[in-house]
Amino acid sequence: MSSPNTETLTQMIEEISQKLNMLNVGVIKAEDFSDEKIEDLTYLHRMVMKKESFSPSEMQAIAQELASLRK
Description:
The protein is mainly alpha-helical. It has one domain. The protein contains 3 helices and no strands. It has helices at 4-20, 38-50, 56-69. The protein is globular and about 35 Å long. The model has no long low-confidence stretch (mean pLDDT 84). InterPro entries: UPF0435.
């Protein structure tokens, strides 16, 4: 059974991916992130969800930030 943090991570990652229209959503999985990074991911999630649209450079920066938060 998954922990509440894993479920929260999964939901946030899915929402970020949908908002950014990321094509390779399957590459980013909740299992790739430690529970210790949930605060950082929450901050990123809030930032992404507040914006209506993103420039290509912003999308790249967000993808890089997601990559840096992985285990």
